[in-house]
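Page 47, continued from p. 46.
Same chain as before, 1049 aa.
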Amino acid sequence: MHSISLSHQFRQLLQSQSETIHTIAPPSTTSLPDECQSHRSFVPLEQHGRTTERRKLKNWYSTVYRAIKTSDGRPIALCGVENYRLMHQSAFSAIELWSRNRLIDHLPEMIRPKIQQEMEDAMLATDRLKTELLSELENPRLIRLLCKFGFINERPEFALEPRWSETGDRYIIKLFRDYVFHQVDEYGNPAANMTHVPTCLNKLDAGSEEHVMVVSYKEIKACIEGAFSGDVYVYGGTNDPGTLSRYSTKDNAVTLLQCGGNHPGKLYTPLMTIVGSVLALHGGYKDRGEHVDRSLFLLNLVSRKWSKITAHGDAPDDLVERSMVAVDTTIYIYGISKYRYGLGVTEPDLWAFNLNTLRTKPTWELVKPCSPERPLLVRALDEKGILVPYRKGLMLIASCFGFLTKAPPPKRDLGTFVWTFDLKSKCWSTLGRIVGDSLLQSRLLAPAVVVFDDVVYAVGDYTPGLDKRIVKYSVFAFNISERRWSKLDYPLDPRPHMLSQPKICATTRGLKIFFCGGIGDDPNRPDRNGMVYVIDIKRIVHNSSIHPAEKLTEIQKTSQINLEEKFSQLERENEKLKHSQVILAELQREKEKSKHDQIILAKLKQENEELKRKQIIFAELERENDELKRGRVILEKENEELKHSLGQTILETLLAANMSTNMWEMDAQDVVDFLAEVVERQELHQSRTERRRILNLFRRIAKSAQVFPKCTELSGVQCNFTYPMNDEGGYGLIYKGTFNQQAVCVKVVRANESSMTADAKDSVRRILRAQTGELALLAHVSHLNIIPLYGAYFSAENKRICIVTPWMENGDLTEFLRKSNNTSSIQILLMSDIAAGLQYLHDMDIIHADLKAKNVLVSRSQRAILADFGVSTILSTNVGATTARDFAGTNHWMAPELLLGEGPLPPTPQSDMWGFGCICFEVSADQIPFNGYQSGQVIAALILNPKATPLRPRKNGDPIVADGGPLLTLAEECWNRDPSQRPTAAKALQFLSDLNVKDERPSMEEELAMFEAAKSGRPEVKIDYGRILSIIHKVGLNCFGIRIGMTEQ
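Result:
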């Protein structure tokens, strides 16, 4: 069991090492079983010191855990068996099985390989996490973070606007800080997402696993707020050379900071500066000796961890009279080597360290000036220089001036000179000899200097006159444009003495000067040393002698403009950072996918071999499949040919059969469905005459059996048959219903056979046949000016076939003209629509046979639409008397040859043109033809007066309409007693089109789309040709020797 306890120890070690890593890169999976993935917060409820006190479950030690169920947050208790995965489904069964094993002593040997494999896998996973962490620490966004946190240093954004390096940047970032840290929710948590800040700060402590740290939001907030409040950091001192203290100007208190990491140790007089939230420290003596540490130390002020940076190549050695400052992400050190100090005129060195090299190769660079004019130092004069940022470059305040070929001036009391250094051209330039009311001595200058509005502010001693040697510290201002030093009336109370060496560093330079020194004139009193002085330049800048009023106004205006520009820049940088986070998250997801893909790839490699073996079989199957496809194409072609031949044979059989009584005994529904498909398929009828015969047969069978094609059957029609509409059709009652959320017209035969005589019942049957015929015709005609058929259904309530067509809100032609502005132009357009629809019917050899204004409807777009096809017929020469009675129209609109002929005669296209002329009369005269005549009187008038027309019904009588216009002219041509002399529908349409009436009616696109949508839901009917053959054989129509039992292939 030793291996089991070793696994437990390893789990504890791995858990402790991965806690910190988990905060940086949370793992995508956990080590818990799948059954426990829905639980969290596993906490043991029992703590036992001895093994004997532990709970046992079936002779195995176990621990009870408290967990939270993720789905509903309810607390539950789980029992974990030691040395086995928590809550595994097979845990208890496996334990019970092991307890029954007589060779239980062999159990460790059985499970040791598995435990060792788990240990190795866990070690590999830990190594991979460490490698990923180290690669992330090298991420170049570390440098971007340092740049963003470098706003406290003097960073002028405009070459001619140096004041922004002191006020603008700091004010912009202060506004941003206030916005971020003051936006909190009701629980006090920050509203802004600042999680990327601790992540980036964590990467600053790169180098080893121990340097990974986790900081909280409060710690970051305290660090940045401390930066803006002007905290001062002091390292070392005479008594405590290895400590770091922070002085808070807000609280006026000193705090001794406890820092970890690679500590610099005891150092005297080191150089310090701030780069964002990082404190940089360089140089200094150890143990008050001559040994100097040349390393660069960086302190993360948030995590308070030191990092030692070992540079490659040369580095600044023991420098004297030195100064250190940061510009953006570059640290500059100015001074003279100790080994060359005291050798007369000496040229100081300028070193630069770019923090961007931290992720590649940390390197110091010796900056070599290109200009012949440069500052020189003389050991005898004991000068030193103070280096400050200035206009994207450097400014040096020193008291010596010279060229490489010239010695410095012999006199020491020449005052302090100001130098500038351009970082791009690497050239020194001086502002010339300085004059003023006092001689400022640079050797006792305070290490902190502020530049604002082309004015340099410094603290130092001065000599009132050449003959006086009085040292007195005061605040001085140097006007760069006037090149003049001025002593300012700024009280330093209590008076300082013995300004300390440059080992002080403030987190914000801004408009404050920080320095350390003693109080009073007695340097021997230890309680008066180590004092921190803070000088606020804001109390000086409004001095009109230094900053004129108009200049201050200009600064205020420029501040507002640059304020907006800088804030916009910060917002853009923030968006870039968010975008980078999204990309990083996506890369992490891609990495996890890549690992998963590697596992899949291994499986695919195994399957690849199997696929190669199956490839040969697959190729053979493909060849067989191609053969089957070719055979299928041949069979389908033969099937279509057989289907066509069979359909043609059946059709010829039906057309050639005598329509005797035994014809009606067959299943008419199947025959009607077959003929409906034949009418739609053009390839089954070769000529116009043949199609006419098919349509006539289809209509006759449908009327006789009173069935309609299944392809026109509708479902879902809603109609209330209690109240019919006032408008009655000639062969049925009209109801208004709904279908597919559209208003529809439902036509039902008005009949009650239970109370009818034999003649009435015969009339009803004729009406039913007419209605079925109308349905058969409408199912196979489609034109803009013919009523579209939505379909039909059998009403269980009325036991009748109901025809469904669109509902026309404008009513019939007569009703529409009475309601609207009955102008001649709209009359001509409507009659053109009727002529176009009638031409379409005649071209299909269909006779309407009941043309009148009541049977013409007007659509929403004001188009005339032909309706009521109940008595319509197919043009034929073989019509019996009984059938002709079904085609009888209305006497007032019927042509004379049909009324006066011997026996019932079928209608013709010429008789339709007589009815067309009657509609022209109705439109012009606003009355029906032969108004006031009974049906028999109409026949008598036509017999007594061979020239009688609806316009002149009486012989030698005046016309009913004196000036009827072109419509009555066309009507009189249609009323010619010789049918062959009447115009055709095409000629009538041409006559009306030649009138050139402008059509300004609305478009029909929306209306047609509505019609098509309603007809699109018709069912699809499959024809059983074998069934049709059996029906023909049953009624004795197998005159062509068709074999019984042939079915569709």
